TrEMBL record, chains A, B, C, D:
Residues 2-123 form the Gfo/Idh/MocA-like oxidoreductase N-terminal domain. InterPro entries: Gfo/Idh/MocA-like_OxRdtase_N, GFO_IDH_MocA-like_dom, Myo_inos_IolG, NAD(P)-bd_dom_sf. Belongs to the Gfo/Idh/MocA family. GO terms for molecular function: nucleotide binding; oxidoreductase activity. Keywords: Oxidoreductase. Residues 131-251 form the GFO/IDH/MocA-like oxidoreductase domain. This is Inositol 2-dehydrogenase. It comes from Vallitalea longa. The keyword Nucleus does not apply.
Amino acid sequence: MVKIGIIGAGRIGKLHTENICYNVKRAEVVAIADIHMTDEIKRWAESLGITRCYKDYRKILAEKDIDAVLICSSTNTHAPISLEAIQASKHVFCEKPVDLKIDKIMEVIDALKGKKLKYQVGFNRRFDHNFRTIRQAVEKGEIGDPHIMKITSRDPAPPSIDYVKVSGGLFLDMTIHDFDMARYLVNSDVEEVYARGDVLIDEEIGKVGDIDTALISMKMENGTLAVIDNSRKAAYGYDQRAEVFGSRGMLSTSNDKPSTAILSNEKGTMGEKPLYFFLERYMESFRDEMTSFIDSIVNDEPVAVGVYDGLKSVMIGMAAKKSIEEGRPIKILEIEI
Amino acid sequence: MVKIGIIGAGRIGKLHTENICYNVKRAEVVAIADIHMTDEIKRWAESLGITRCYKDYRKILAEKDIDAVLICSSTNTHAPISLEAIQASKHVFCEKPVDLKIDKIMEVIDALKGKKLKYQVGFNRRFDHNFRTIRQAVEKGEIGDPHIMKITSRDPAPPSIDYVKVSGGLFLDMTIHDFDMARYLVNSDVEEVYARGDVLIDEEIGKVGDIDTALISMKMENGTLAVIDNSRKAAYGYDQRAEVFGSRGMLSTSNDKPSTAILSNEKGTMGEKPLYFFLERYMESFRDEMTSFIDSIVNDEPVAVGVYDGLKSVMIGMAAKKSIEEGRPIKILEIEI
Amino acid sequence: MVKIGIIGAGRIGKLHTENICYNVKRAEVVAIADIHMTDEIKRWAESLGITRCYKDYRKILAEKDIDAVLICSSTNTHAPISLEAIQASKHVFCEKPVDLKIDKIMEVIDALKGKKLKYQVGFNRRFDHNFRTIRQAVEKGEIGDPHIMKITSRDPAPPSIDYVKVSGGLFLDMTIHDFDMARYLVNSDVEEVYARGDVLIDEEIGKVGDIDTALISMKMENGTLAVIDNSRKAAYGYDQRAEVFGSRGMLSTSNDKPSTAILSNEKGTMGEKPLYFFLERYMESFRDEMTSFIDSIVNDEPVAVGVYDGLKSVMIGMAAKKSIEEGRPIKILEIEI
Amino acid sequence: MVKIGIIGAGRIGKLHTENICYNVKRAEVVAIADIHMTDEIKRWAESLGITRCYKDYRKILAEKDIDAVLICSSTNTHAPISLEAIQASKHVFCEKPVDLKIDKIMEVIDALKGKKLKYQVGFNRRFDHNFRTIRQAVEKGEIGDPHIMKITSRDPAPPSIDYVKVSGGLFLDMTIHDFDMARYLVNSDVEEVYARGDVLIDEEIGKVGDIDTALISMKMENGTLAVIDNSRKAAYGYDQRAEVFGSRGMLSTSNDKPSTAILSNEKGTMGEKPLYFFLERYMESFRDEMTSFIDSIVNDEPVAVGVYDGLKSVMIGMAAKKSIEEGRPIKILEIEI
């Protein structure tokens, strides 16, 4: 049994905890730390049989019986806690992004050198049933050489302005998942990025220096021409689709829905909206990424999504930002490590 | 060029005429007869270059240069005009049903014996792109032996009560197409019929002795279990679907629509209603059945849908009627020829 | 917390147990009985924290702290154990069918009289997301008065001949779910049944007196004309669809699939097969039916599927059998209670 | 009746001629000119009742009874013949592109000034049922303000290298339709273009200086971010889709297919490939554009697609070319008129 400490008991920390308790074998959560440890969190932990509840995550790092930690605290703490956890010889699962700054991620990469520790980054969508089916088909050569890739990623509603302010911007907060998906689907790195972005949904987002709508075209190293389109607000809900077109065929996925029911009446034929948001849409992928993390530890195998993937997606995001600032395509090589 | 005379210039007569003029090769309409020949019909005929317009169809039968006639007059005249046309050595395309009475159809069958004349019945749906695809796949063995067949046939709106009165009833007016379709799709005759029918849409239909909703189960001679469901009124429009399930797979078709457009909004995802009614839905099939009739004449080949098919569908309709009257399954053999 | 004893640790017993442990709140499994209690079962139970493992289910019935039992043993034991459990004042969740004989079910009904016990029957499909969506729409009047209902239920592969022998026959083993679904979807009882059945898949099934393909038409008490089609073997896998057509529209559902991925290549556009069989397809419904059972106990509310539903579906199955034997439609009233 | 002369009796010239003869009211083709007038063309013309067949199109321009000409000759002749036809006071329908050079198109624009002549350009896709449905919904405000537009346009097979050489390149030969579609769908001009192109299908195409795969992102004047993706070879055939996403919803279209049939078997669920190529896919749109042209003349109304639209699409194509050459986004304003 892999013994796990959770750092950060917010929404995503709780989700991972419950998944480990109910749905992941060979792992158990033994301790939880949260800078705002409350009675509510304690009661919830107790109901899951978890008795060690701390305010200070360092207590978790100090406990010898804990094998691995999940870093689910706020983004700016990901890298520093990662460094301390590595120092304490804990395996680490770190929510995305590792950090908004490249040098901080590089410090984590350096710290991992020579260590026999697993370090997985929370790009859960790689474990999604739809996207995984595309990747597997691409790997098997079912569509031949990839030529064109289209990723659509639109949220049902924008986050609060307070969140937007500290989010790192659309590209590092939202598109970062799509950048990782692009790399994953065709198993290739990005070579060059050209991005356009605008404020079409909420002027407040513009006032704090961010955008809410974007179209990013990319050249992948394997020659694939790729495009990602983003919106912070789709009237019909969470839109998560991908299409990879190659020399021998195409793979495309559509949105998951609550049911397959179609209502036909005098207005037409009506289906349901997509599953509401990432918690509903990617529920299974969260379970599968955690199982994969535990398997990596138990079987001493490489993690499915490593710190290098965390670095790359941030670099692409920075290239996209720079592309908008300078109004020209940016090569990933132009981003300094 | 096959020279054609049209008998009956109502909606379907005009449709066939225009199809021959515009879309069927090696045929031309040279004369039109209608018991209510009007100036409007004459002007329409003239615009198509047709100058011979008669009140009496016998004038058409008397003209030596006319090779074939299309009988598009009212149902009760189909059989008598067929007999006269055969007598006059004309090839015949007769709208369905040949007659509502079996002995009248038998007279036509007898009259055709020993004659080298083509006689095609207007079961246009056999030429529909969707249903033909099923039939061809069944023939090629793509689904193995057929086990279960489901035909859904629902109209967008019931006909007028005046029409219902003389229609011969739901089974001989509407379901007759579906009976023919059942025989066509699995290339087998019907052995036994069990029908249920009800008046669920319009009480007036019940008052004139007809039904507006029906469910007919059938055992085909090749062992397929089949079901047809009918309604005179589908809120979402004309519903024409079929499904054949066999030992190796299933073929199913859905409705044709005006466009593939889907509107996604806060209510869900919405597609258009099916094409409105038989004129829109089966437009191409009307052209193809006429081309097939002309080809049969020109190439001296058997017609695709003969008088025997016209007979069989009426016999199944009678068995369905009898099944409702007697509350039991009826073998086709019980229907006297 | 509702304390639960499991009777029968086969596939379905284990599934319910794990669901309660992982996914159902306010309930815990405290004891398990199986006539063939093995070390394997004990280890499995222990891994779930369940320490009381018995060969004799009577031990469970004798334990005062146990509130409810799940009867997951073989069909012929359902009724007798139900009676004993009721006698022991346990709430009961009983897998379907309650019994293959009506008088046995009536004994259970009688035993429940005057008792404040919950008795739920395992018609899990009532909790399926697709079918529930139809039922809710029908209840809200979204399709007006139901006129026609079509239920397709086909298995990916027939069970073993040994199972077929003791199954009670297609209608009581397989179609029983569809009979219950018919009653559920339009919220009405069945009035009359006409069934056709055949052996089209495996002659061995015929040799032991059963059928493998069936088409059942029914008249519901509310006037709906309904049809169920069954096959023990669909080449493309588990086929579970329903369609309810009414005066104002239609609701239809299609099969759930492992992913939404479509592969387009020189052969056409290809989607995946449906989820393999009932364990995959109805996974969520098993969880939801158990949650519903526990809720009924905790909130002292009526169960969602009661013993009366268990009785009715068996009566319809018997009417279907009788219909095939006598070659005529059978009214449910003709089945003696 | 509008009397029409056809200039150029190749594939598209014949198609328009037959459409006018069979399917367009208030118009008749009275003369045909082709620089390679053959007996085959003469026989075909005669079968349609057209007796005036010339080698020299100037004979058509000289004939007083001819109201309008269709210029269906090779691309390099479009502009010069347009000028002569305008001089001869004929209405003109000109196949796309008007010319590959902007100054030539400007000459046509100048020649039209002050004339009461109709001049329509052959962007037939504007009359397509799918795309028209999107445009109409956008106009009605059904999706609110457009934010993101995606156009996919892929051919089933590349043209011959000989054709590629004189085609003007992918952007002016193939994408030109998509540029026009982009302007049409959101009713806005293009402001800026960034294009990437590559040779991924056939090296021979690269050797003659063209590309076969492209991804073009555009900023529209109304703020919409748009992307077009092109391939000269899709294994599954002709792929023509569009999606417009706006503040209140999204409209998307999929490909038309020969039938709605789905084959389900042990491999999955399979639909047919899209209609083969533009003649099959856009058959109806060719009829409707011609009807629209005739209506413009008869009712003295503006044409649906004018010379200005012809100009704009060429300018966008040139901007796309320049973008690839210079590796930067190009504003349409940078293209000199």
